[in-house]
Amino acid sequence: MQKLWAGKAAGKLDQAADDFNSSIAVDSRMFRQDIAGSIAHAGMLAKCGIIPEAEGEALVNGLSGILCDIENGSLPIDPAAEDIHSFIESALIDRLGDTGKKLHTARSRNDQVATDTRLYLREETEKTVALIKSLIAAIIAQAEENADAVMPGYTHLQRAQPITLGHHLLAYGMMLARDIGRLEDAAGRMNVSPLGACALAGTTYPIDRGMTAAALGFDGFSLNSLDAVADRDFCVELCAALALLMTHLSRFAEELILWTSWEFRFAELSDAYTTGSSIMPQKKNSDMAELIRGKTGRIYGNLMALLTLLKGLPLAYNKDMQEDKEAVFDSFDTANACLSIFAPMLGTMRVNRANMLSAARDGFINATDLADYLTRKGMPFRSAYRLTGMIVSDCIAKGRTLDNLPMEDYKKFSALFESDLYEDIALSTCVEKRTSAGGTGARSIRTQIEYLKQIIA
Is 444 a catalytic residue? Predict the structure, then answer.
């Protein structure tokens, strides 16, 4: 296949250098976007009188035929091609002859690849957002089912205060809702057409950049031709948003790994999302969750690779920028694979309410509520805090909990204690009393669920 840039160079490119230069293995996935961009460009050339209407129509029909043939398998993409842009243009020339050679009028591969990449990543972002919404839906379902399932809330991985599993899960729903916002925000800035910037300086032809931008669903076109072909901010932004998404998935996966361990036994994952050991027959390993946790580092690496790639590049296009797609494509592939596993893994998780409640009872996590009880009776909070600490120490020495310490023992510490104490520090009461906005009480959980339902609607 003849190179699109053949002409000045007299010698033949070394085969190893040709292979090294090729990007077809990475960018071939953009064939639909490349053809869509070319169809819009051909239509604009004809509309503006740069090529005859009949030739514009022939180009559009030829490109549509190539798309159909690639999709049905009758035109396999040649792995020896330099890139997907060269392959499609060569196929068009084979079919249309000199008319096919007119497609590249008033266009460079620089603005072509920038356009294709934005179109492709726009679609990938939509897929990722849809997958995040599926995971949020799984969170909502588990949260509704476990809105009253009491468990320990933790700080420093130490039992801290009673919450519900529904409340805990909804925290991840809020993180994922922000991830949607970040991806959509980045996609909005990306949705500007570079087509018509050509190599770097624009063109002498009377093109209509607004026409091609509108045909491709862009919000407008780039206002500086140098920036149009050199900008890869959108790749970095999307990779950064995906890196933060993976941070949230990794944290969530870590908690599932802990909860399903024999030490916690708060939950059990379906056999469909766990594996066993080759030597220990009793094992049930949370391998899918562990892989999600592990793949997070891969997406962090892609982000750093992009930032490092771009940091020293002069304007405008440089061949270094060919490396952008592998990083951002892999980030989307990896994140989407993780999301596709996470939603059903969470949705089929079985919760052990009894073990969660038992853990909550054993950790003195209603100590703050005991201090609040004394405060409501008139004792200054700092004094109530100190006295509660002394009562906890007494319970530990006697093998008691705050719930079953006899009233006569409480009376030794303060006459403010009355029989209403036990109901006040019951774990279910502790949870339900937290009625402040965003808290673990039932009303707040309903509000949080309704918010997330609106996000995914």
Answer: no
